[in-house]
Amino acid sequence: MGKTILIAGATGNLGGKIVDALLTHDANVRAIVRAETEPEKVSALRDKGVQVFQLDMFDKNKVAEVCAGAYCVVSALSGLRETVIDAQKALLDGAIEAHVPRFIPSVFSLDFTHLVSGTNRNLDWRREFEIYVDQAPIAATSIFNGAFMDLLTTDMPLILFRFRRILYWENLNVKMDLTTSDDVAQYAARVAIDADTPRHLRIAGDTVSAFDLKKIVSKATGKQFGLFCAGSIPLLEVIIQITRFFSPAENTLYPAWQGMQYMRDMMQGRAVVKAHDNHRYSDIGWTSVERFLARQNAKS
């Protein structure tokens, strides 16, 4: 058995995939889950050979007990401020108390290092926690993967299949990083068992513009897609403010205005990455948008 890796958020989509990836590398996987987690989810993890510990995620001392002997703690926690800040602080503090040498926070997002603070609620929480991590006596690595490519055919309104249009705001040539959750999980697992990784790593399965998407989607579907400019970035800013005012939904993880904030950040070009770290693990077969859409078409 290889290194012991502890993961929080193992019952989520990304967390579950990281668990599976770790197991393929013969890691000894432990999972911290909430005390109220459904029994079937706990059983599913245990059936894979994962050691599951149900506990109060906010109890640093309990967390430390479970972290003892781990080589790396991986956070795949997702939620509102209580989870992203408070629960992750308890997780990090517990790891430090247990003398765990390495920590991977739940970033897994656009590279927000050059975004304007206070303009994207969910990313602001992650930025706040990143500051806390920077001050902690532990070797930490955060992974920026752009947007999840999986959302192209679900919640991300870039490809308007019904109208055969690619939506964009202001700039049809701005590049956007997209990575499948499967590829992110494979990479995160490799980072977790690595002996030495930098503070930040940036990856992308593909980097495309709205103009690129037009050609890719047209080829993948065999149907000609066009472009639809929804307006300027300043107009999108106004729409975000109006939507948030009339439909705040502050206790919702992804209210409509939050999705618009992500869209604005991508279309502004502030999250563009100049150099990626995909090559660090050369055996990972990165999924392009064309390949992803081909897979989706095969399933439908």
Structure, explained:
With 300 residues, the chain is an alpha/beta fold. α1 crosses α6. α2 links the parallel β2 and β3. It has a domain of 178 residues: Rossmann fold (3-Layer(aba) Sandwich), CATH 3.40.50. It has a six-stranded parallel β-sheet, sandwiched between helices. The protein is built from ten helices and 14 strands.
Give the averaged pLDDT, no decimals.
96
Q: Tell me the number of helical segments per DSSP (H or I, 4 or more residues long).
A: 10
The CATH architecture of the domain at 4-146 and 179-204 and 274-282: 3-Layer(aba) Sandwich
CATH domain topology of the domain at 4-146 and 179-204 and 274-282: Rossmann fold
Radius of gyration: 20 Å
CATH-assigned homologous superfamily of the domain at 4-146 and 179-204 and 274-282: NAD(P)-binding Rossmann-like Domain
Helix and strand pattern: EHEHEHEHEHEEEEEEHEEHEHHH
Structural class: alpha/beta
Give the number of DSSP strands. 14
For the record, give the distance between the C-alpha atoms at the N and C termini, rounded to a whole number: 39 Å
CATH class of the domain at 4-146 and 179-204 and 274-282: Alpha Beta
Largest sheet, if any? Answer: 6 strands, parallel
- Point out poorly predicted stretches: none
Strand content: 15-25%
DSSP helix fraction:
40-55%
Taken from the alpha-carbon principal axes, the silhouette is globular
- Widest β-sheet, arrangement of strands: 3-2-1-4-5-6
